[in-house]
Amino acid sequence: MITAICNEILLRKNELNTEEIQHIYFGGGTPSVCTVAEIEQILAVIYTNFSVSEIPEITLEANPDDLTEEKVSAIAGTKVNRLSIGVQSFFERDLKLMNRAHNAKEALSCIVNAKKYFDNISIDLIYGIPGLSNTEWQQNLQQIVDLEIPHISCYALTVEDNTALKKFIEKGVVANVSDTQSSEQYHALVNTFEKQGYINYEFSNFGKTGYFSGNNTAYWQRKKYVGVGPSAHSFNGKERSWNVSNNGQYLKSIAKGERPFESEILSEADQFNEYIMTGLRTIWGISLKKIETDFGIQFVHYFEKLAQSHLDNELMCKVKNQYHLTKKGKFFGDGIASDLFFIPLNGNQ
């Protein structure tokens, strides 16, 4: 697989032309199971074939059970300069419920290990877990504050089909996810981290100044990116593409010198709707100037007309020519965004 990933990088070297790479992100699975030699192999191919900025952000997603001090020390010897650790919770009960491979002790010890070698660390937490009280959630948040982690990503628990949790809920063994509980814990999250000097720069992400995720910010600002490996997605501004998810098919195609992928050209309406959806999630909001420049004045009029009701209900606010969600509107952001989508009347885009 590592060889195939390196070969795909070579197949696609012309996609970036002479553009400089700002961020490299090892994610979309469990890259921390890779050996240091494998990580270095991939980085060597990138550095040999592309222009990379002088100080790029290079992130490795990691599971706590992989991050022994020996492994962290070895990773620190590579060009990787940021760790994103999937802790999810510091409570044993929650980890067992979500079928996580690590335990509560490893959740804490891996961060202690990581802090010895890395300054730029991000931790993932999940709220809205059945049985997770608001008091326990606050204890999770306080643990992050006490550990002085500079970046946090927090997500509401979603119950996927064909999972053990879904079956437990259907059988009544576990309580269902509560929207009320999720809302309360989200607001506690925002209040806690704002008091600690974190900036809620995107709905689910909080960072100290200088520690925003450059990689994820690029996604939200709809910048160009190239995704490599099975299931990886790519975007060039007007077209999205995604590699086949089947590992065997991926390996066979790459071995033949072919990239196995599908793609779609985004219509003007698609591009507008994506901008609305991603922009509202961030502190940068929606710019009327950008809408006019990218899509035309008619889209400005359309947006302002639909946004008025949300201004009246104090779910959105307007500062100069920028629209933002209010604190009251943040938890309803996805619904508000869909209200603002452009849907062509004749079905043509």
Helix content: 40-55%
Mean pLDDT: 94
Low-confidence regions: none
Tally the beta strands. Answer: 13
| Class per helix and strand makeup | alpha/beta
Instruction: Name the strands of the widest sheet in spatial order.
Output: 1-2-3-4-5-7-6
SSE sequence, one letter per element = HEHEHEHHEHEHHEEHEEHEHEHHEEH
Shape: globular
Radius of gyration from the CA trace? 22 Å
Discrete helix count: 14
Largest sheet: 7 strands, mixed
- Span of the ends, CA to CA: 39 Å
Percent strand: 15-25%
Topology summary:
Layout lengths: L1 H10 L8 E7 L9 H14 L1 E12 L6 H8 L5 E7 L3 H6 L6 H12 L5 E7 L6 H14 L3 E6 L7 H7 L8 H17 L3 E4 L2 E3 L6 H7 L12 E3 L3 E5 L3 H9 L5 E5 L2 H13 L5 E2 H8 L1 H16 L3 E4 L2 E4 L7 H8 L9
Parallel strand pairs: 1-2, 2-3, 3-4, 4-5
Antiparallel strand pairs: 5-7, 6-7, 8-9, 9-10, 11-13, 12-13
Helix pairs in contact: 1-2, 1-10, 6-8, 11-14, 12-13
